[in-house]
Amino acid sequence: MTKRVLVTGGAGFLGSHLCDRLLERGCDVLCVDNFFTGTKQNVAHLMDNPLFELMRHDITFPLYVEVDQIYNLACPASPIHYQFDPVQTTKTCVHGAINMLGLAKRVKARILQASTSEVYGDPSVHPQPEGYWGHVNPVGPRSCYDEGKRCAETLFFDYYRQHRLAIRVARIFNTYGPRMHSNDGRVVSNFVVQALKGEPVTVYGDGSQTRSFCYVSDLVDGLIALMEAPDSLTGPVNLGNPVENTILEIAELILAKTGSRSEIASKPLPADDPKQRQPEISLAKSELGWQPTVPLDAGLDKTIAYFEKTLG
Ligand code: NAD
Ligand code: UDP
């Protein structure tokens, strides 16, 4: 039987790639999005597919549809966008999770939460294993997202314990690739766009802070592997690429790859910016047989090619 799959946030960066992959696998895909950061353009190529349906809806309001699986990705992911309307960000995380969990309970669907490495905050344990409880400021500018996502995880595990719901929680680390919003402020898209336009590449702080970047196709493979895993694997499971780089290294690599003459401009470090981040992925390796396969070099080439095309 054809699997009916709901993807919330399906018109966003990760969601649109997930919709692509689910359709390739023969699923019937319902993409729900309020287009806050996602666009119809991201899924325009799917509109003629009879197995694809697009619905404008805000998940802070209830939704009743018959589906077998739910991927809950709806939530702005970049600091600029999630801090634009922080109350709505918390509502999307918390009310959105309650609505989607209620739906999953009602229709007996399996449900996966797109959680985040931000639940670890500015980590004092490095690299971060799933057992680390995190170091999060509850009242800072990033808290609407970090604490919203932490509360969503709590709700997922309470629905699991209280209602025996089939849950999956993925903790996604920094992911990049084509269809990132060109001005959402995330580091890879920012640097590529700035380099291609010949504008200064804005390194916040001294650029010594680290992140570990996963290419989008690898991440989507991980999400599907987790959804298809046995019910005993609730997670949380870290999904990300453990290869760690400083932000200055990323800036220099992108400048070299684009052949740009842009200068590096130093800007103040935003409040509560985590100093380091690297996923510990032994759980995903052993339980899902998953690990990233696309090196940063190849992933950046594809991302640069995408922005070269879209920026004209
Ligand atoms: P994105 O901003 O491109 O996608 C989010 C999508 O959700 C957008 O299409 C947006 O319009 C939609 N949305 C936001 N609020 C909504 C609401 N209330 N109702 C319905 N739709 C809503 O971001 P992304 O990078 O694709 O992230 C997708 C998910 O993955 C998010 O939940 C994010 O927290 C998580 N995540 C992403 C990363 C990453 O590096 N990309 C890292 C960790 C976690
Ligand atoms: N960053 C930067 N310049 C930019 C955008 C981001 O130096 O133009 C830095 C940012 O301060 C952070 C890192 O890059 O240390 C990753 O930022 P992003 O917003 O992409 O992700 P997150 O901080 O949520 O991991």
How far the N terminus sits from the C terminus, by CA atoms, comes to 43 Å
Number of strands: 13
Strand line-up in the sheet with most strands = 3-2-1-4-5-6-11
Assigned CATH class of one domain: Alpha Beta
Known CATH architecture of one domain: 3-Layer(aba) Sandwich
Biggest β-sheet description: 7 strands, parallel
Number of helices: 9
Beta strand %:
15-25%
Helix-strand category: alpha/beta
Give the CATH topology of one domain. Rossmann fold
CATH superfamily of one domain: NAD(P)-binding Rossmann-like Domain
Element string (H = helix, E = strand): EHEEEHHEHEEHEEEHEEHEHH
What are the segments in which pLDDT stays under 50 over at least 5 consecutive residues? none
* Ligands: nicotinamide-adenine-dinucleotide, uridine-5'-diphosphate
What would you report as the Rg, rounded to the nearest angstrom?
19 Å
Helix content: 25-40%
Shape: globular
What would your notes on this structure say?
This protein has a domain at 4-177 and 215-240 and 280-292: 3-Layer(aba) Sandwich (Rossmann fold), CATH 3.40.50.720. The chain has a 7-stranded parallel β-sheet with strand order 3-2-1-4-5-6-11, sandwiched between helices. A two-stranded parallel sheet has the order 7-10. Strands 8-13 form a two-stranded parallel sheet. The chain is globular and about 55 Å long. The protein is α/β, with parallel strands linked by helices and 312 residues long. Helix 4 (143-163) links the parallel strand 5 and strand 6. The protein has 9 helices and 13 strands. It binds nicotinamide-adenine-dinucleotide (NAD) and uridine-5'-diphosphate. Nicotinamide-adenine-dinucleotide binds at residues 8-9, 11-15, 33-38, 58-60, 73-77, 92, 96, 114, 116, 172, 174-175.
